[in-house]
Hints:
The chain is mainly alpha-helical. The chain is 79% helix and 5% strand. It contains two helices and two strands, in the order αββα. It has helices at 3-28, 43-79, and strands at 32-33, 39-40. The protein has a two-stranded antiparallel ribbon with strand order 1-2. The longest helix has 37 residues, at 43-79. It is rod-shaped and about 75 Å long.
Amino acid sequence: MNTRQKILFRALGVTTSMSVLLILYYNLSPNYVDDEGFIVEEFWALGLASLGLSSSLLGLLILIVWLWVSSRKAKNSSNR
């Protein structure tokens, strides 16, 4: 694993951790009804968490492909 792959792996870990914390915040935040009768919830936290988890999954797939391609290149260059 080279340096750029390690940096991407760490960034994915931070993004996933922050997304989980945002989901916890959304679940623990109180829901209430305002003066006009609308339910007030922290939808921004749920939206950011969903976006973060989706991008983390996409980044993980990219990292897996990157690791697979780099390992194949390393095997091919050592066989020559």
